[in-house]
Design a protein that fits this description.
There is one protein chain. The protein is of the alpha/beta class. The chain has one domain: Spore Coat Polysaccharide Biosynthesis Protein SpsA, Chain A (Alpha-Beta Complex). The chain contains six helices and nine strands, in the order E-E-H-E-E-H-E-H-E-E-E-H-H-E-H. The strands form three sheets. Strands 5, 6, 7, 8 and 9 form a five-stranded mixed sheet that branches. A two-stranded antiparallel ribbon has the order 1-2. Strands 3-4 form a two-stranded parallel ribbon. Strand 6 and strand 7 form a beta hairpin. Helix 1 packs across helix 3 and helix 2 packs antiparallel against helix 4. The protein starts with 8 loop residues before the first strand and ends with a helix.
Length: about 180
């Protein structure tokens, strides 16, 4: 795609900055976690930046670091990977509102779940640490093992009728698709 995902431009701003802007309108504080040594677009001063505590452990390492950074600040976190540039404030709020007393809420469309556009109680940190210690880096498995409530995406359509919040960028065609939807 020519650039690292955080720097891909969608709607006249880098994808990471766009996701952070949207999430910050729905929840606070906002923590961004990435690989140490990587380059990231400028972010607002109140954004907390952290780095994966475990190298090459994928999204689970980011979750573990982010959850630890939030531990004394709140009891739950909305998680979004930077490759969901069409995420909406209403969608974030809809997912968080469904958390209730659950350990996590993860959108699900049939057999596909979206554990990187979900809400988690920070009490699941020990489950995450154990999974990382066992070398299991599967985010889908973490959502299952932590006891997440899987919410049918149709339940979230009131917040995002097209469910564009769930679109992610993994290749050139998906990047071009989100750019078209964003009006570019």
């Amino acid at each position: 795609m020519g650039s690292p995902k955080p720097w891909l431009v969608v709607g006249a701003e880098p994808m990471l900055a766009r996701v952070v802007r949207v999430v910050a309108k729905a929840v606070s504080p906002v923590v961004v976690v990435g690989k140490r040594g990587a380059s990231y677009p400028p972010l607002p001063a109140d954004i907390i930046l952290g780095y994966d505590a475990v190298d090459d452990a994928g999204p689970l390492a980011g979750l573990a670091t982010g959850f630890e950074m939030l531990a004394n600040r709140c009891d739950a976190a909305f998680v979004a990977s930077c490759d969901h540039p069409l995420l909406s404030v209403a969608f974030v709020r809809a997912v968080v509102e469904r958390l209730g007393d659950e350990p996590a809420v993860v959108p699900m469309d049939g057999k596909r779940s979206y554990p990187l556009v979900a809400a988690y109680r920070l009490s699941v940190r020990s489950v995450l640490a154990e999974q990382l210690a066992n070398g299991d880096l599967r985010v889908q498995e973490f959502a299952r093992v932590c006891g997440a409530r899987f919410v049918a995406v149709d339940e979230l359509r009131e917040a995002d009728s097209s469910l564009d919040s769930l679109r992610n960028v993994n290749d050139q065609p998906s990047y071009e698709a989100v750019c078209r939807i964003a009006g570019e």
